[in-house]
Design brief:
Blueprint (H helix, E strand, L loop, with lengths): L1 H7 L14 H11 L11 E6 L2 H7 L23 E8 L10 H17 L3 E5 L4 H7 L6 E10 L5 E6 L8 E2 L5 E6 L1 H4 L2
Parallel strand pairs: 5-7
Antiparallel strand pairs: 1-2, 2-4, 3-4, 6-7
Bound molecules: flavin mononucleotide.
């Protein structure tokens, strides 16, 4: 069921590091993303595939995780993602970096859903410095990082809860490190 995949496709912040992800697996995710809708069909994105351990280890420290849990350093040691896809805009194809901000979400979610279907998982990471990532990954000036998506085999429990109007949308963790994600009720979001 498609809805089961959507529900399973959570933002994971803990992975089984023994399950490496190959370049071919990332290619397959991008091959799904390229069919996503795009404003005026501009398709200005190119994708940096990061799967070699030494490259993953260089990118990981440049990514910011779980800003809503400032007392916690996530991922926990030994539970990092084993691959990244850096969604970049090729400014030679279109130099307007604001025009395609919605498109970024469409391609990222397409890759996450495709990964979930393959028994993998991931998370969108917007908390990074494009300049630092470009420098570390040796990207040319015309290739601008827009959003990073981390991937791996999820190794943590996430529970979706329902909240009413006025209740906090902030995610939280219990003593067992179970991650809770509050979602608004259907009846509260339909106008
Ligand atoms: C555009 C975007 C950027 C995000 N950036 C980050 C990030 O930098 N770090 C992080 O830990 N989570 C990030 N997230 C994940 C959100 O925190 C997560 O989607 C939210 O807590 C709801 O959890 P869920 O995706 O499991 O429903 C991002 C999500 C989106 C949509």
């Amino acid at each position: 069921m498609f809805k089961d995949i959507v529900k399973k496709s959570r933002s994971y912040r803990g992975y089984d590091e023994s399950r490496r992800i190959s370049r071919e697996e990332l290619l397959e995710l991008v091959d799904c993303a390229r069919f996503a809708p795009s404003s005026v069909n501009g398709q200005p994105f190119q994708y940096l595939l990061v799967w070699k351990k030494e490259d993953v280890d260089r990118l990981q420290p440049l990514t910011g995780w779980a800003r809503a849990l400032p007392d916690m350093k996530l991922p926990h040691p030994g539970k990092c993602p084993t691959a990244f896809v850096v969604i970049c805009q090729n400014t030679e194809w279109d130099s307007n970096l604001n025009r395609y901000l919605r498109d970024v979400g469409a391609v990222a979610q397409t890759m996450l859903l495709a990964a979930t279907q393959e028994g993998l998982g991931g998370i969108m990471i917007g908390n990074f410095s494009p300049a630092k990532v470009a420098q570390e990954m040796e990207l040319p000036e015309t290739i601008v990082p827009m959003l990073i998506v981390a991937f791996g085999k999820p190794d943590e429990k996430i529970v979706i809860t329902e909240i009413g109007n006025g209740q906090s949308t902030k995610y939280y963790r219990d003593e067992q490190d179970v991650h809770y994600v509050p979602k608004r009720k259907l009846e509260d979001i339909v106008l």
